[in-house]
Structure formats: C-alpha cells, structure tokens
Amino acid sequence: MNPTIETIMNRTSLRKYEEKPIDPQHRDLILQSAWRAPTAGNMMLYSVIEVTDQAIKDTLSETCDHQPFIKKAPMVHIFLADVTRWYDYYEACGVAEWQAEQGKDYEGPDEADFLLAVNDAIIAAQNTVIAAESLGIGSCYIGDIMEQYETHREMFNLPERAFPVCMLCYGYYPGGKRHTPMWRLDDKYAFHQNQYHRVPPDELSGMFERSRFNFPADNRYGAGNFGQFHYAMKMGSPFKQEMTRSIRAAMKHWRGTQRHGT
Fold this sequence. Notes:
This protein is an alpha+beta fold. The protein has one domain: 3-Layer(aba) Sandwich (NADH Oxidase). It is built from 12 helices and 4 strands, in the order H-H-E-H-E-H-H-H-E-H-E-H-H-H-H-H. The chain has helices at 3-10, 24-35, 54-63, 84-92, 95-101, 111-134, 149-155, 187-190, 204-207, 209-212, 226-233, 238-256, and strands at residues 46-51, 75-82, 137-142, 162-172. It has a 4-stranded antiparallel sheet with strand order 1-2-4-3, with helices on both faces. Helix 2 runs antiparallel to helix 6. The radius of gyration is 21 Å and the shape is globular. The protein starts with a helix and ends in a 6-residue tail after the last helix.
C-alpha cells in the first residue's frame, strides 16, 4: 500500500490524547487541508470554529452527550454548514432588488442549500482527519454538536444560515501507539453496481455477526437480540430524539431567512 492508502486503512477514532499541544505548523497544515477539500461550485459553503477557551470545551463536554474526553482534547474544531457569506454578499450586491426588477422572486437558503453546505462541511472535515492522521494526530468526530441547537447557537454567536454539523477533537496518539482499526461491513452489504439491491431477509443477521458477539444478554434495555439492543442504544435513544428536535429547530431558521425577499 502507498502511504495515503495506509493512512486511511489504519485510521481509528481517538478519545485519549497525549498531553501536549498541537504543533502550530501541524495545526496550519490541518486547516489548509480543509480549504483544499472539494466544494460545490468552489463556494466553500462551510466555516470552521476553533475552540481554544477551556471553559467552552468544558461546556461542550456536557452539551455533547456528556463526553468528558472533549474537555481534554488539545484541539477542537467545529465545522458549520454555512451560506452566510454568500447571502450577505448577495444582499450587498442588491440581488433581491435586481430580481424584483426582472419580475422574479428572491429565494433565500432552502433545503438544497442546506444539503450542499452539509456536504461541503463534512468533506472538509474528513480532509483534516486524513491530514492529521498522516502527522501522527488522531481524531474523533462528535456528531452530538448537532444537539442543543439553541445553546450552541448562542454559545458561538451563530447566524441563522450556519449550522454545526460536526465537531472534531484532535490530539497526538499517546506514545505514538495506534489502535487496531474497527471492523466494517463486507462489500456485499454496502456496495452496489448500477442499481440498489436490498439485503435479503435471510442475510440480514449476517451483516452484524461480529457485533453480535458483544451483545450483553443482561443489557439495561431488556433487549432480546442485537437489533433491539442497537435500536434502543442509538436510534431510539434520548440523544437521538434531541438531535432530531434540534435539527428541526435549526431548519426553521434556515428556511425562514430571506425567503421571497422578506
């Protein structure tokens, strides 16, 4: 394998970091890697907030589903789906008035813009993950930043057109020692050619055969099998309910901004 493929194949989430700051040169390389990520129409529909205030890290370790390791991460970046710059620019250029002169409505940010911006933000984030890994810096995605929308919006002074889609914690591997990569689904379950094919019912249990060995029979949910256990732990959990509520609240703001010239 070449070094790039080896970096990708050996990357794992890291939640315990060596107690030393990120080298400034490494930090800059990681950030520049974000800017070089593919982006829709070269618009860079994302922004990055670096969290250096320890008090904010402490708060995030609670608001992001109570994860103490966040407060100990040497570097924390929040990636925002963000169209603020473009719509501020459109306003400064008199686009709404120009559209009205042509008998057209001025459309504000919609669901398509949101998804494009989310794509841009995640692609940029993943670029930093691989760049960091190549420098001996591990990372962990925190999707829980999408929760507590009102709290995080106020905490970071976010405009209506910006939404935090992921947070990344970075730090050097303790002693430079990497973890063994986690297993992934076999190709036959996730890879399709030409058309989508659902997994046959008699093959569904085989998808997660390796996970099922970790299924605790005396689990706190009272689940009788791995599927029930996983649903209760993830899809049916309180944090998932809060994430759904939070995203819906954010979308109301996103869709309501500069709609039809208002």
